[in-house]
Amino acid sequence: MTELIIHTERTGGDAVVTVGGDLDYDSHGRLDDAVGAALDDAPVGLVVDLAAVTYCDSCGLRVLLGAHHRATEAGATFALRGAQGQPARALKLTGLDQVLG
Questions:
Q1: DSSP letters spanning 23-51
Q2: How far apart are the first and last CA of the chain?
Q3: STAS domain: from which residue to which, for each copy (predicted)?
């Protein structure tokens, strides 16, 4: 298991949440909290960068779907970028790659 690392920054009007490590049952709450904090600053867009995520289970996928929903409700755009390996396969198998972009 790889510890989840989360870094949030503002780039222009967007809040960019960069995630690394395992996004799973044990760690998904931390990403959910980071997304909430990022949206509290009323960004134009929310970007979640998964380039350094090595594993993502159903709890992680649920947080990503929730992030999309929360951003939309807040009037912000949502973008998911950088998914590769197992996380990209999980997104594709569930069809969330089409929903989350």
A1: ESTTTHHHHHHHHHHHHHT--SEEEEEEE
A2: 27
A3: 4-101
The DSSP 8-state label assigned to residue 22 in this structure reads: E
Q: How many CB atoms lie under 10 A from the CB of residue 32?
A: 18
Angle (nearest 5°) at CA 32 between 26 and 85? 65
pTM summary value: 0.95
d(CA 59, CA 15): 22
Per-residue pLDDT of the chain (101 residues; tens, 9 = 90+): 789 999 999 999 999 999 999 999 999 999 999 999 999 988 999 999 999 999 999 999 999 999 999 999 999 999 999 999 999 999 999 999 999 98
Return the sign of the alpha-carbon dihedral for residues 53, 56, 59, 65.
Answer: positive
